[in-house]
Amino acid sequence: MTLSQTNTLTLLDRTLAGLKGAVRGLLGGDALDPHPDLTGSDAERIRERFGACLEGRGGEVSARTRAADLGKAYLQLSPAGRRRYLTILATDFDRDPAAVDTAAAALVAAAPGERPAAENDLRDALSAPRERLLRQFNALPDGVKFLVDLRYDLMGFARGDTALAGLEKDLERLLTTWFDAGFLELRRIDWNAPAALLEKLIDYEAVHAIRSWDDLKNRLDSDRRCYAFFHPSMPSEPLIFVEVALEIGLAGNVHALLDEESPVGDALRADTAIFYSISNAQRGLAGVAFGDFLIKRVVDDLRAELPNLKTFATLSPIPGFRSWLEKNPDAAVERALSKPGWWQDPEAAEAAKGPVLRAVARYLVHARHNGRAADPVAHFHLSNGARMERLNWLANVSESGRAQSAGVMINYLYRNDTIEANHEAYKGEGRIAMSSTVRALAR
What we know:
The chain has about 450 residues and is α+β, with helices and mostly antiparallel strands. About 55% of the residues lie in helices and about 10% in strands.
């Protein structure tokens, strides 16, 4: 079992333990203990327990206890059992179409003085009972984390299932409200952080895998910074985190940044902050936007701590290039990359450089999805007001780096005086801010 797999199991165990603790001593012998596949009468017991939660029998404490038991039962189910559980929640506790139609018709027919009451009636009709059930998990120990993970399950189950897709959207709306950027706390994480939190950085790192504790220690050294957003209901769970290298000038090679043997730099002499990894730690919060706020907050913190920093840029992957290239073949690129070990052969690498860099630039600038950059990392940084600054040859020749983008990485530059204009131009017209070098390569 890998270090990452071990940590994933530990996180699940912690969530399960938190929900078990909420049930223990409160529910007595009536606790749910379903078959993992939720077969036979177990499904009916789940349905009845949902109904009892909605009715609020026994007061607030009893309602919370039932919700905790429902959460514990969910975590014990197999994937098939979880799907059945969520289907019960989605179909049996959906909004009533007839009530919605009646309330909508009443709103249309309402006189001016009756309209506010009719709008409230329609709002109530559109609020599904399942939304009230989901909110009951919110107040439990680890309840918000449970809902975040439950949404990740739903995202997989909902494909092709209208009822589960509706439940997933209801939960997404709730999480978007609860995880508004105004509620989030920015924290710097260093080597003195609790071991459990450091383990989560290893587990959640999504861009450049953390290979060992020595690797992690190197990334948290004095010439490095790591910042994360946290939510008050999940104080020990990072939501998204960014790793920063303090350098002199733009960095163009991720292997150099991550080299554990390289000497530690002097943060006070650095003039450039390189954001080299941004990882969404909670997969169930996909689509809940707070990454753009993270970069802006981190830039402000770094400026305050280290006024010598003048340049803020990324060293970013280009994850969609090779898949785009398969659909848009380029004979020169294919020839250049066909030689085994081309990146290790100086002559072959030099021959590949021009064709590959031009193809990557065309992809980044011209490949579009709904009028915006098709590459997800490009879209993220352009939406935040960055500029495509420089393509870096052989910047990441790891297996994943070659598979994604033939080893090419890109610097996105964040300039305080142009961020807002770049953001508005991209958001409004899809116009991409880029340096003259990138523009020339993309022609």
